[in-house]
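Example record used in the benchmark description.
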Amino acid sequence: MHQEIEIELKNLLTAAEFAAVRAAFRLDDGAFFRQENHYFDTPSFALKERAAALRIRAKEGRFTLTLKQTRADGALLETHVPLTPSEAEALLTGVPLHGTIAALLAELGIDPSNVRHFGSLVTERAQWPYEGGTLFLDRNFYLQSEDYELEYEVDHVEAGEKRFLRLLEALGIPRRPAPNKIARFYARMKEMEERR
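Model output (structure tokens):
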């Protein structure tokens, strides 16, 4: 198990703005790698209600189970547990959670046996260091939709926000704070259900 505090600043992009960021930082196709996020919650969305999220990330043949919990200051406490491919497959096919993450869910008042896999989001991502932080340029595919985002991971929110705003202004991109990927995934899922 590994825990970390993460401060992320996100901005949704249009397809044209995504292309402009690629051009500004000279990111060719080789700069991007693929990762998949598989999202979990209870049927009543108990994690979402507690401002938490649970996912398995598949990246470069490795699998990591991550519980994200929003802190009072808006930062995220992330708890990561590496998984073997067979452990990841078991969770994706409905085997109940156990171990560290299950214990943390129980502390939140969530029965780990009620957790279900809801779906997946695929990201084509480039990342590079930028002014004391890390920039991530993402193209996301989920539930028959596609979106683009620029994310800036920083150590200090105020200084990071100033640098991020300067970058967006230099690129001619308006500030559009973005809900996190799992929130966008669930919003799209709800939208699709309402159309049925």
